[in-house]
Amino acid sequence: MRNRVLFALAVAGLLAGLASAYLYGLQKPLPPPVFSPAPNPYLKGIYATGIIESYLSNGQNINIYPEVSGTITRILVTEGATVRRGTPLLLIDDSIQRATAAQQESQAHAALALLEELRAQPRPETLEVARAQVEMAAASLQSAQDQLDKLQRSYDLAPRSVSRDALDNAINAAKVARANLEVVRRQYELTRVGAWVYDVQNQERQYAALSKAYLASTALLAKYTVRAPQDGVILSINAAAGSYISPQGTYDTYTQGQGPILVMGSAERYLAVRCYIDEILIHRMPRGAQMQAQMFIRGTTLRIPLEYVRVQPYVSPKIQLSNERTERVDVRVLPVIFRFERPKDVELYPGQLVDVYVGEK
User: Tens digits of per-residue pLDDT, 164-200?
Assistant: First the structure.
C-alpha cells in the first residue's frame, strides 16, 4: 500500500513539473514600445545628446547672483514672468546699509555747511566787533598820549611838579596803548580778508571726500535691490523670502551646493539646442556652413529641423548634463549650438533633453 502511495505522488510530481515547464516555456507577446527610437535621418549622421536652452547670441542662460549678502525680504517676480531690463526682481534687507548712507549724507551736509561758512567770512557782525575794538584801542592810545603830553609839559616847566615815576608810567602806558592799537588793527585786517585759503581748500576736500563716500554708499544701497540685467523670462527662482544669499548664490537643499538665486532666459521666439559631440566623432562633423541637424523630442514622434548657429571651440569633460563638478569622466565633448523656432503644437522648456542627429547638406 505504501509503495502505491509513493508511486502516485511521484507520478503527480512528474506531471506537475511537465505542466510547469510547458507554461513557463510559453513566450508572452512583448508590449509595444511607448515611442519609437529616434531614427538617423542622414546617411552619415552623427548622434548627439542635446539640451534645450534660451537662445542668446553668446553664452548660455543668465545666472543671476547678488553683489551683496543678506536676507531676502521680498521676491517681486514669479517664474515664467516676462521682465524688462532694470525691473526689480527681489529685495534684500538693507536696514544697516540704509542707515550708513543716511549717516554719510548728514556728514556731507555738515561739511558743506562748514565750507559755506568759511567762504562767507568775514561775518558782518564779527567785522563790526573788530572795527569797534580798533576804535577803542585808538581812543585808549589817545587818552594815554594826552596824559603823557600833560605830564611832559608840566615836567618841562617845573621838574619838581611831576614825579619821575609818574612820567615813566605815562610813557609806558602810551607805548602799551600804541602796541595794543597795532594788534587790534592787524586783527581787524585778518578778520576783514576772511578765511585762510588753505582752510577753505582743506574743507573743500573734506566735503568732496564725504560726498563721494555718500555716493558710494548710495550705490551699494541700490545693489540690495536685484534687477533684471536685460529683457527676458524668469526661468527659475531658487530662493524664497527669508533665505540668506551671498555673492556665491544660495544654498540648494537638494544638491547641497551653491547656485544662482535666479535664472533668466531670452524672450525671443527662438530656442537654442546645445549639442555635445563626442570627441571621437568630431572628425566626422561637417563644417559649419555645410552642417544641418534634426532634433527629436523624447516620448514623441516629433522631429524639428535645426539651424546651425556656432561651435563653442573648446572640448571639455562631459559634465554639463549632470553638473557634477567632482565627477570623474573620461569622455570629452565639443558643444555645438543650433536654434529653432518655438513650435505652436508642443510645449518645450529650457533644460529639456533631446536627441539630435547632425548631418551634412
Answer: 888 889 889 999 999 999 999 999 898 888 888 999 9
Rounded CA-CA distance 315/311 in Å is 10
Judge whether 332 and 276 are in contact, CB under 8 Å.
no
Per-residue pLDDT, 20: 74
The neighbour count for residue 350, using CB atoms within 10 Å, is 19
What domains can be seen in the chain, in order of their start residue? 46-55+268-360 (2.40.30.170), 62-93+224-265 (2.40.50.100), 122-194 (1.10.287)
Q: Tell me which residue has cell 557634477.
A: 324
Cα–Cα dist 257/251, whole Å: 6
d(C-alpha 17, C-alpha 2), whole Å = 23
- Most confident option among 167-176, 218-227, 280-289: 218-227
pLDDT digits (tens, 9 = 90+) for 232-266: 899 999 999 999 999 999 888 777 788 899 999 88
Alpha carbon distance 259, 238 (integer Å)? 8
Span 277-289, average pLDDT: 87
